[in-house]
Write a structure and sequence with these properties.
Cofactor: a divalent metal cation
Shape: globular
Strand content: 15-25%
Distance between the termini: 35 Å
Helix content: 25-40%
Structural class: alpha/beta
Pfam family, one: FGGY_N
Mean pLDDT: 92
Keywords: ATP-binding, Kinase, Nucleotide-binding, Transferase
GO molecular function: ATP binding; D-ribulokinase activity; D-xylulokinase activity
Oligomer: single chain
Radius of gyration: 22 Å
Number of strands: 18
Number of helices: 13
Family: Belongs to the FGGY kinase family.
Low-confidence stretches: 35-44
Length: 430
């Protein structure tokens, strides 16, 4: 039996999903780790934690399963990066996806990047790269700039300096023309930018010594990866323009498959390439974190059952834990609006769920107003996907069917890439 391994690296742990040629899950594994942030020594050890997590995770897979794995792919958090020497050893601290120290070099970013570009963010890969060139205490000449998924794959295949065009989007890679733009190639830096290939592209076999150590076949190949959010989209089963995935996690994240590309830095909207189509996305600060601020999981479940979902709540909130949002309203000083709060907890929760659904609907309306394909269906991922009352409210507000995804684990979507699923399989409607 030929099996395919997808590995998802998140902020608190990693997960593996192994599928067969038909896409049926044959095994799963998880490994939790604590990201160490603080001193230089601790930060450098973050990469060591990743490596230990990777090898431990694969070791948890039953040996008889490992022996049948023909290909492996990784996904990592977008814009999590690490700078390595010529042997692949990290020489500076890994910078996590939400590390905002790039704010110090934003004037440099603005001076070289086109207006309204995705890299115009303090947390972009490019901002981190420029920050490293200005602040590294280590010798960075002839070093290699890699994303998290790139470095993890390198640990298995040993080919340094290869990335995919999903991870490279926020580095400034031109995903439409599939090349580095001149303004990026002309940067006067002594750091090697990665060679970019399509997600899922076979790179190299697992190193013989690693194959022996982990009990993998000598002909097991490592493929180019993707980001965690793209992997989750692939896992959902959405394949046609107009289909979307809403992630109801701590925040609210929308991704709509579109014929046309939409980028608008003002709202934090950018597009990933998926074959001949575009995955247009935006994220709001509202979401599950606000709900859990007021209710426990048990309360959310019990109170939701009592909501009259066929009736729209008259309460109009903008649920935030602190001021500021970017999408679908761009206002860094937007105040949370959680008043009036009724004495009845069911009414209050109804108002919160209704209001978040209105923001979701407004987000999809904005994507379409800016040129994205008309919305037809929404798949739901994240913890909020389990709430049937919220689902009914959202369907009423958005006006399209709300569907359950085929799979919710990002690792499953990455396993599809390892299996040979090509982004070109996602085709425009005829």
């Amino acid at each position: 039996m030929n099996l395919y391994l997808g590995i998802d690296f998140g902020t608190s742990g990693t997960r593996a999903v192994i599928i067969d040629a038909a896409g049926v899950i044959q095994a799963e594994a998880k490994y939790s780790f604590e990201l160490v942030l603080g001193s230089t020594e601790a930060l450098t050890s973050t990469a060591i934690v990743w490596k230990q997590a990777l090898f431990t995770l694969i070791g948890q897979i039953p040996l008889q399963i490992r022996k049948e794995i023909k290909a492996i792919a990784f996904d990592g958090t977008s814009s999590t990066v690490v700078l390595c020497d010529a042997t692949g050893q990290p020489i500076t601290e890994p910078l996590m996806y939400n590390d905002g120290r790039g704010v110090e070099v934003m004037e440099m970013v603005k001076a070289i990047a086109p207006p309204n570009h995705t890299v115009l963010s303090a947390t972009s890969s490019l901002a981190k790269l420029l920050w490293l060139t200005q602040n590294s205490k280590f010798k960075i000449q002839n070093s290699y700039f890699l994303h998290q998924a790139d470095w993890l794959a390198f640990l298995l295949h040993g080919q340094l300096g290869i990335s995919d065009y999903h991870n490279a989007l926020k580095l400034g890679y031109d995903v439409e023309n599939l090349c580095y733009p001149d303004w990026l190639k002309n940067l006067q830096i002594s750091i090697h930018l990665p060679k970019i290939v399509a997600p899922g592209t076979p790179i190299a076999n697992v190193l013989p010594e690693i194959a022996n150590q982990l009990g993998l076949p000598r002909d097991c190949i490592v493929c180019a990866g993707t980001t965690d959010s793209i992997a989750a989209f692939l896992a959902s089963g959405a394949m046609s323009p107009g289909e979307a995935v809403t992630s109801l996690g701590s925040t609210l994240v929308l991704k709509l498959l579109s014929h046309t590309r939409v980028d608008d830095a003002q709202y934090g909207i950018y597009s990933h390439r998926l074959g001949d189509l575009w995955l247009v996305g935006g994220a709001s600060n509202t979401g599950g974190a606000v709900l859990r601020h007021f209710f426990s999981d048990a309360e959310l479940e019990s109170l939701s059952c009592k909501i009259p979902v066929e009736k729209e709540s008259p309460l109009e909130y903008y649920p935030l834990l602190k001021e500021g949002d970017r999408f679908p309203i761009n206002d860094p000083h937007l105040p949370p609006n959680l008043k009036p709060r009724p004495a009845d907890s069911v009414e209050f929760l109804h108002g919160l769920l209704e209001s978040i659904a209105r923001i979701e609907a407004r987000g999809y309306q904005l994507l379409q107003q800016l040129g994205a394909t008309q919305l037809t269906h929404v798949y739901t991922a994240g913890g909020g996907a389990k709430n049937p009352s919220w689902r009914a409210i959202r369907a009423r507000q958005i006006g399209v069917p709300i569907l359950s995804p085929n799979q919710t684990a990002a690792a499953y979507g990455t396993a599809l890439l390892a299996q040979g699923y090509r982004l070109g399989d996602i085709k425009p409607c005829t």
